[in-house]
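Lecture notes, unit on protein representations.

Consider one protein chain, 262 amino acids long.
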Amino acid sequence: MNATTIRTLARGVATKAPRFTPTIRLFSAAPQTSSPGLPDSITRVAAPSAFPNEYPGQNYIFNWCLNADGVTPLKKSAFRIAKPLDLKVAGLALPKTSPLKVNAKGERSKIPEAGSDGLDFDTFDEALQSTKDALSLSDSLFCPEGHSPGTRTGVRIISNMKVIAPDLVAYLDRAPKRDPKSQPITCYVLSGVEEFSGYAIEEVEETMEDKSRVAVSVATVVVTGKQPSLERVVAGIELSMEGLEADAKERAEKKAAEEKAE
């Protein structure tokens, strides 16, 4: 699914590199029906279902998806966390409360939107790129994934922080686990650096299965600092959801007006 970014919302006009969601084709070997010279007891009876050299934290399809999001896990340790069992695989503790309600009201004013008076696009883009670069060099990445609470809007957090991953899993609504793809909301969360917070809403054109092109909005959240808080990340998700919903409503109203005028 190709997407061409169009920063032409009321938030400002700018140009940004295209956002791509790769189509992944998984190849597997054909079933081996015979193995001359080998006893039946050690003959392969099924086709391999995974790439060689994969292990927990090293999944090629998920790594390719992260690469499409601008992060390349160079240390080969990136955990996609969509359910409590995934936390155990990543060596993390289970959340103490699930589902988890998070009060982020006090943090919302600390996350400006790119294109507003409080944050220009160039500053946001620079912070985003430096955060992606630092995450790529992290020893491990922990990537909670699910739906924004009460919605069907997908969220992925890409972070080097073990401490907030369990609570983020508990906060997000669990989504059906399918092959990974880019999400409408992507959060980049980095600890051990200078503080920065911001988010951006962008309109993109997506090519559907029937080859038609439709306009949708996507959100990017950046939260960095010595130890970013759960509440700050949740505030970014909430603000992003509001922006996506406002854009969807505006497009629906525009479409209805055009249809009425015909």
